[in-house]
Amino acid sequence: MLDDELRLYLFGNHNAAITTVVLLREPASDGMEHITIKTADGENTLYEFWHNSNKVAKQNKGPPRHTGGKSPYVKLMTEEIRRMQKEGLNGREECLGVLLYLSDNIEWGTGRLINKRSKKPLQRADLSKVLGYSNEKLNRIIKNLKDNDLLAYSPEGYFISSRLIQKGTNKKEGD
To answer: Which CATH topology does 75-166 take?
Structure first.
């Protein structure tokens, strides 16, 4: 038999109830637990659910790192391409091609170049391997990208300018 406070709560007449209930926990072989909440007499089941007591809650999940079932994408900022063309920057086609080729290796939300599998920052040797360029050609391209502020290097790795390519962010550099 339900007590009045619990009955009024269950029917939505009150937002809280002070009551006595029976809590049951039944462990399963896979580590899950079946939790059941019953009335004090144990006859009526009020609520039941499965709980994984071994699951560790993630902290600081951050923004989602997926494309919602769509193909992976990057945003190419056309104003920056027009600026490069207007200023007649040396080797712009090659720079754009290299950056677009590296777009799979751009970390979501940061613009850092990373290994797709290990998520570790790409180093100069990794860039040479990914692009298949000799050291001389790679040095020339990196210098050109850096001179045009399209690539920056810090102890955390190489970063592509968000003025040109964005992946997972709407913010421009400096915001």
So the answer is: Arc Repressor Mutant, subunit A (1.10.10)
